[in-house]
Amino acid sequence: MMRPPGRLAYLAGFLFAVALLAGGCNAYSSAYKVKRLEEKSSRNGLKLNAEDFDLFTEAPRNYSFFVTLTALAPEMGCAPCRQFDSEFKLVASSWGRVAVPGKLYFGTVDFSDGREVFQKLHVTNVPMVLHFPPTEGPDATGSDQYELYDLNRRGLSAEALVEHVEKAAHVKFPLRRPINFAYYATVAISILGLLALLKLVAGHLLVLVQNRKIWSTAVIGWTILMCSGHMWNSIRGPPYTGVRNNRPEIVAPGFQNQFILESQIVGLLYAAAAVMFVALVKKTPGISDPAMQRTAVLGFVFGFIVLYSFLLRFFRLKNGSYPFKLLF
């Protein structure tokens, strides 16, 4: 005849159930999670799925955990995601060089691997960075809620993220950007190419640099440009022309204002007068025929006087009290 179980059997069953519960609790303790994190960690942080995210972000935690939610698949077309992914991995790798086990971890959840995480957190914009602070230990914040990193205000740079991580996780580590050998190689090749080009054309450049005609033409041109009011136009940005009494106006009254067309006209008059003067000085001495030389001198002088008379007339149009004139 079978006896009913006694008190001792009930007690043994109760203790066995408690042991199972305790074993289950220990399996998801902070120590267990740190062990799993260390096993999964890589130099660029952890790649997480929905199950990993739930495990490592739920309480209890005695570590700081930064997680970026992103969408890196080409069909998603998220350019900021790809840009920030490299910066986030740079921060993770920089911490990996000096990492203290159980202190700080970095992870990434891609939409293709953890769609459930995006749905649970109601994520509509990516990339997004979440910080899960410790819930136990000396750095515990007393809250199980995550903190959101403001990418809109701080930007996508690794420098800004490192600054925030150091303050939030109470750590200190240098950001180490890899040497961009392609950039330095491009600069070196460009410099060498430029030096080779200079060596090939050095003789021609020397002739141009020592050419007095080129320098004198450049100086005269620059002087005419400045005397015409080009610099004033660049600084003040006046209109091209004006309108007065429903009629176009090309000369602004007074010496404190001018139109762009007005300065262009003055510049052309200055340039034409300069051509007459330079031709008088440089060309006429080389004419061998005395009659032709006399005609050229008279022609250039008369042309210069006429052009200068137009300039004075233009100044009188601008300001009626201007007292000087030449021919008209």
From TrEMBL:
Q: Keywords in UniProt for this one?
A: Endoplasmic reticulum, Membrane, Signal, Transmembrane, Transmembrane helix
Classify the main location. endoplasmic reticulum
Q: Name one GO biological process term.
A: protein N-linked glycosylation via asparagine
The organism's place on the tree of life at top rank: Eukaryota
Provide a GO CC annotation, any one: oligosaccharyltransferase complex
SUPFAM superfamilies with a match to the protein in the record: Thioredoxin-like
The question of whether Disulfide bond is a record keyword is answered with no
Q: Which Pfam families match?
A: OST3_OST6
What is this entry's stated membrane topology?
Multi-pass membrane protein
Residues crossing the lipid bilayer are: 181-202, 214-232, 265-283, 295-315
- Annotated signal peptide: 1-27
List localization entries. Endoplasmic reticulum membrane
Q: Show the PROSITE patterns listed in the entry.
A: PROKAR_LIPOPROTEIN
Q: Which InterPro entries match?
A: OligosaccharylTrfase_OST3/OST6, Thioredoxin-like_sf
Q: Which family does it belong to?
A: Belongs to the OST3/OST6 family.
Q: What is this protein's function? A: Subunit of the oligosaccharyl transferase (OST) complex that catalyzes the initial transfer of a defined glycan (Glc(3)Man(9)GlcNAc(2) in eukaryotes) from the lipid carrier dolichol-pyrophosphate to an asparagine residue within an Asn-X-Ser/Thr consensus motif in nascent polypeptide chains, the first step in protein N-glycosylation. N-glycosylation occurs cotranslationally and the complex associates with the Sec61 complex at the channel-forming translocon complex that mediates protein translocation across the endoplasmic reticulum (ER). All subunits are required for a maximal enzyme activity.
What is this protein identified as?
A: Magnesium transporter protein 1
What is the species listed in this Swiss-Prot or TrEMBL entry?
A: Spizellomyces punctatus (strain DAOM BR117)
